[in-house]
Amino acid sequence: MSVFVEPLDIGGNGPRVGIKDTIDVVGVRTRAGCRALESVAAARANADVVEGLLAAGYHLAGKTNLHELAFGTTGINRWTGTPTNPQFPAYVPGGSSSGSAVAVAEGSVDVALGTDTGGSIRIPAACCGVFGLKPSFGRVSRKGVMPRDTSLDCVGPFARDMDNLIAVMRAIDPSFGPLPDIAGVRIGLVEVNATPTILDAVSAAVAASGLSACKVQLPDFGAAYAAGLTVINAETWAACGELVGTGLVGEDVARRLQAASLTTPDDVAAANLVRDRFAAQVDAALRDFPILALPTMADAPPRLEDAADTSKLVAMTSLVRPFNLSGHPAIAIPLPAIDGYPVSLQLVAARHDDERLCAVAAHFARHINRP
């Protein structure tokens, strides 16, 4: 199946870019990989991020495939098809921005845009062996992006290298400034649950960077993951729940939406208390260590034959979802494969310190053995 749900030929002669099909392109239907939206009206205006890309001379090559309604972690879509993970074809491409990650990894485009509500840029970037950035919440305009109302979702770029990723950020975020000097930056190595081989790979990458590092703890990390699920369930049900009644939503996503419908206002209020507490813990750690490091995924991605029920694989996001809840920028950086499966390093910075995050990520990219 093509990574594109709709090919495009729009814009200048600059780098080719894929646009996740939750982001409006004028004259094109925004269907979010869902049959229930097959007949929606075409978008009447470009999303702000699309306008930024066109103004910078990028060439829109296509709307990219995704996990239906951007509500899944594997990238499997039984209506539009599942893009093949080009470097690791036995494994899922990751979701929800599967088509954007695959298009970059296979070279169909130079860069792509995705959205990240609970890991939907960083997980497919990790699965496909490319770079993927979730900016600080609120840093990049979401005008013209589905869902309209969210406290978690961010638009961000995929690329095969940091230079191209940074260039996209400059196009979609007019406030993105020069990269700062990173001399003296210390790394906080977050203690998390992951397979020993992945933890060793992350520690080796931090050591290879030459930056000083110490271990840090975030006591509410697990609680933040659960709270992030509560918030995304409430917000996605509010945005998409009415589609379940059409009978046209895929079984896995419909099942997850029905479960999400049980989320109560009290559940959300409790989750927001965790949000405040966890965000304060991350802020405190970042005062001592301007960059935090941890794996993007705790284990190998699921193999395709083991991923039939995508609603049971949400735990793929155990190490990324907490930073959607807190709003901090985070980036996935590919590391050398282990035993034939992809491995990825995640870096996190203070809110609105996206430039420093990208500067340190570029430093890591120069000092680690790329796959």
TrEMBL record:
InterPro entries: Amidase, Amidase_CS, Amidase_dom, AS_sf. PROSITE patterns: AMIDASES. Residues 17-172, 233-358 form the Amidase domain. Transmembrane segments: none annotated. Pfam families: Amidase. It comes from the Bacteria. This is Glu-tRNA amidotransferase.
